[in-house]
């Protein structure tokens, strides 16, 4: 949305102090909305339902299911926006470029096109792990205080994020069948958060990688590709 509203002339005349204030307000509002939508709403609804069912053990499970449902509905809803669908295509292009390199192939449009748009270390998978880890963690962390439950859900976000990060990092470096099975939900979510890019989008992805990473040295070092092969890849890219 910010990119679609960008105006170069307006950007040149923007007051830095005013820009900082606006950015700060947006960040605060975003945090408030996120806490309300993904913490308070699922917790409140789950607490109501578990009380009606007479089983407090169901609280965390119902809360996790509701949080996941809200997130999936949100993702699905914004996909209806044309700009978001285009953004997801660029997201897919990014994944294809990285998967191309991690498969030991020179980074060309043709090679990237053949690569999958799903990636084990994607932020979408990370988000899914955060939700799953939170369900497990809060199943064992119990307190009778509603206020303390909410406070713990906020304070333990860094811990949950850290655990989720380690899982997703491990998923990208091992072929262990258990880890690969755990990774499936995150990959399924990427079917919603990525799209098949066109060749121009792949070229943008390649240019982005070129700007920050020496992929030729990486392929030469990790996959022992010859300089001739890499030169051919450079010519096509």
Describe this structure in words.
- By secondary structure, the protein is mostly helical.
- The protein has a domain of 73 residues.
- Helix content is 78%, strand content 0%.
- It contains 12 helices and no strands.
- The protein is globular and about 70 Å long.
Share of β-strand residues: under 5%
Write down the overall geometry.
globular
Helix count, per DSSP? Answer: 12
Radius of gyration: 22 Å
Regarding quaternary structure, how should these chains be classified?
Answer: single chain
Distance between the termini: 30 Å
Number of E strands:
0
Query: Major sheet, described briefly?
Result: none
Question: Averaging pLDDT over every residue, what do you get?
Answer: 89
Ranges where pLDDT stays below 50 over 5 or more residues in a row are 1-5
Q: What percent of the residues sit in helical stretches (DSSP H or I)?
A: over 70%
Series of H and E elements: HHHHHHHHHHHH
Overall structural class, as computed from helix and strand content, comes to mainly alpha
Draw up the topology in text.
Layout: H1 8-12, H2 16-53, H3 58-78, H4 82-102, H5 109-114, H6 123-140, H7 146-155, H8 157-171, H9 177-193, H10 199-212, H11 215-223, H12 227-236
Helix pairs in contact: 2-3, 3-6, 4-10, 6-8, 6-9, 8-9
């Amino acid at each position: 949305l910010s990119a679609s509203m960008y105006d170069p002339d307006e950007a040149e005349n923007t007051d830095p102090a005013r820009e900082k204030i606006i950015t700060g307000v947006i960040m605060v509002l975003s945090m408030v909305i996120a806490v309300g939508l993904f913490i308070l709403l699922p917790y409140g609804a789950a607490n109501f339902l578990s009380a009606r069912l007479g089983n407090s053990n169901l609280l965390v499970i119902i809360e996790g299911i509701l949080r996941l449902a809200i997130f999936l509905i949100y993702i699905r809803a914004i996909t209806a926006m044309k700009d978001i669908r285009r953004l997801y295509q660029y997201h897919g292009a990014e994944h294809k470029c990285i998967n191309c390199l991690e498969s030991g192939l020179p980074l060309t449009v043709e090679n990237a096109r053949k690569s999958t748009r799903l990636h084990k270390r994607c932020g979408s998978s990370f988000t899914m792990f955060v939700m799953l880890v939170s369900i497990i963690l809060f199943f064992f962390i119990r307190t009778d205080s509603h206020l303390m439950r909410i406070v713990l859900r906020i304070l333990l976000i860094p811990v949950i994020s850290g655990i989720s990060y380690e899982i997703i990092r491990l998923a990208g470096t091992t072929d262990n069948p258990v880890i690969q099975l755990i990774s499936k939900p995150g990959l399924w979510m990427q079917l919603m958060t990525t799209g098949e890019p066109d060749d121009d989008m792949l070229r943008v992805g390649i240019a982005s990688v070129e700007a920050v990473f020496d992929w030729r040295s990486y392929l030469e070092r990790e996959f022992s590709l010859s300089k001739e092969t890499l030169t051919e890849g450079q010519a096509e890219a």
